[in-house]
Predict the 3D structure of the following.
Amino acid sequence: MGRAFEFRKGRKMKRWAAMAKAFTRIGKDIVMAVKEGGPNPEANSRLRAVMQNAKAANMPKENVERAIKKATDKDTANYKEVLFEGYAPHGIAILIETATDNNNRTVANIRSYFNKCNGTMGTQGSVEFMFDHTCNFRIPNKNIDIEEMELEFIDFGAEEIFADEDDILIYAPFESFGAIQKELENRGIEILSSGFERIPQITKELTPEQVADVEKLLEKIEEDDDVMNVYHTMQE
């Protein structure tokens, strides 16, 4: 198995956001998708992907429809995707994806978390190069030959395809998202969920005491309402 498999296995062992926070994140994704490509999912591939993720997270259909309607209102604030970078204690690189309607607030908050937990907020590009930006798709495992599918989807950018519980996960570089989404839809393969992740190229093993120091910072960052995802180079 490759790095995507190991990364995914490690992430599954970690805490996941509370359901309310997951819904908030999906709501922001809906606003950004609608503002970018309109409210019709048939003509907006990004919105289709977000709606699939909402279904996978058991977000009520009426909540999704309400979020789409709200996003079409010109008075609804748009969210800007901003990436923050820095170091936690013990040399652990941290990459933070945010969606914010007030960049000054988000910058101030993220900087305060680093300062309070003995970390260092970095400049743009200071740690991003340490992570591979990937896309992923989860599909049902309905009598699919994974090896055959992997050979077929190499042409669309797929790098790793593996079984995960009762489903199949496809990993590819970030820029291959559109091509793989289109091919899955053309083949009539249901997309249960999809998304993007940043996989660390190298991880660092810490002592339990050092892990606690890093976890303290990660928890503060993850609790922020503007934060969508947090990635780091600490070995899981």
User: Anything to note?
Assistant: The radius of gyration is 18 Å. The chain has a mean pLDDT of 91. The CA atoms of residues 10 and 236 lie 6 Å apart.
